[in-house]
Amino acid sequence: MWQPKAGVTLPGGWCATEDMLSPRSPATHLERCDTGLVFTMAHRFPALTAEQKKELSEIAQRIVANGKGILAADESVGTMGNRLQRIKVENTEENRRQFREILFSVDNSINQSIGGVILFHETLYQKDSQGKLFRNILKEKGIVVGIKLDQGGAPLAGTNKETSIQGLDGLSERCAQYKKDGVDFGKWRAVLRIADQCPSSLAIQENANALARYASICQQNGLVPIVEPEVIPDGDHDLEHCQYVTEKVLAAVYKALSDHHVYLEGTLLKPNMVTAGHACTKKYTPEQVAMATVTALHRTVPAAVPGICFLSGGMSEEDATLNLNAINLCPLPKPWKLSFSYGRALQASALDAWGGKAANKKATQEAFMKRALANCQAAKGQYVHTGSSSAASTQSLFTACYTY
Ligand code: 13P
């Protein structure tokens, strides 16, 4: 490895000092030869110990090992209500519990395709019909338990209906309690919209900063932060415009994460795939989506990030799988695991199969298992579309201005 010798002048008039060459030195600094100014790097005040970093990077890697991805089952009460309404089931705590019990009690082999499950607060403390906590059922399957930490959007005044995400107040205390209760990762979804004057630089900066504050607080409490800056698919913009905006958003997010001293090896990114807007008349192939997506990621996401787990953003189950497969076959360098963290695209056909009836448990679990396996294959670039897709799996799951 190249190392400058002490006293050697570096580009820009900087000069290496003895400190910089000492691996034990806590302060890495460069000295400006011509002015005598000292520039001290933040390394002097480490944010995390070596043990904390090791724990965080091991959790992150476990979640995305061998084509595994994440089930985002963290729909808030209101969002779950919309899902249940579609299948004409009442939105009660018991109905929400019953559906989730069916998902979580699926055969143990689910742990070959699902590495983590994100829960909503209510679900973390719910139990199955035998009185066993859901979180213990998941852990016994070897699945990492996560929690939704953001608390919804608040308007950014003076913008075209843009938002910033709430939830930083008391976040450290919440994270500490969740860690004690067996949670190992968190999720925070920031929403950026493509429209007239959107996303504004204010919305980009504000959301990037909140994501970085959240990520730093998570890591201090032993939780791997899933960083989710979602450019939502509402609008009639084309693929190229979505790519441009996604790059600007991701570049701002990684600048903020660096400013906040977030340890990237102990994070996961959950971005949108680069797609045309829902109302765009031009249609694009999975290969075009893949090329635009990987190009945007390649330009903005450091190789230190262990995994990128896409959200499904209203794509049909089948499209979400086909696009992920094409992304993994894209002939550009891909230094990260490219996997999934789907909500709608892992649960839509399971919800349809369930229809609120306990007797449909087997069919519900089979539908869920089928999507999980298909996405695991896609995360390795090995998915083969059989051509016999169910109606539920090809149906668009788009909802305008989607909230979680
Ligand atoms: P979808 O896959 O339904 O877009 O949701 C994933 C998610 O967790 C959004 O925050």
TrEMBL record:
Signal peptide: none
Keyword terms of this UniProt record: Glycolysis, Lyase, Schiff base
GO annotation, biological process: glycolytic process
One example GO MF annotation: fructose-bisphosphate aldolase activity
Presence of keyword Secreted: no
UniProt entry tagged with the keyword Plastid: no
Cited Gene3D superfamilies: Aldolase class I (3.20.20.70)
Enzyme Commission number(s) of this protein: 4.1.2.13
Domain of life: Eukaryota
PROSITE patterns xref list: ALDOLASE_CLASS_I
Catalysed conversion reaction: beta-D-fructose 1,6-bisphosphate = D-glyceraldehyde 3-phosphate + dihydroxyacetone phosphate
Pathway(s) served: Carbohydrate degradation; glycolysis; D-glyceraldehyde 3-phosphate and glycerone phosphate from D-glucose: step 4/4
Family according to the record: Belongs to the class I fructose-bisphosphate aldolase family.
Name this polypeptide is given: Fructose-bisphosphate aldolase
Protein source organism: Sciurus carolinensis (Eastern gray squirrel)
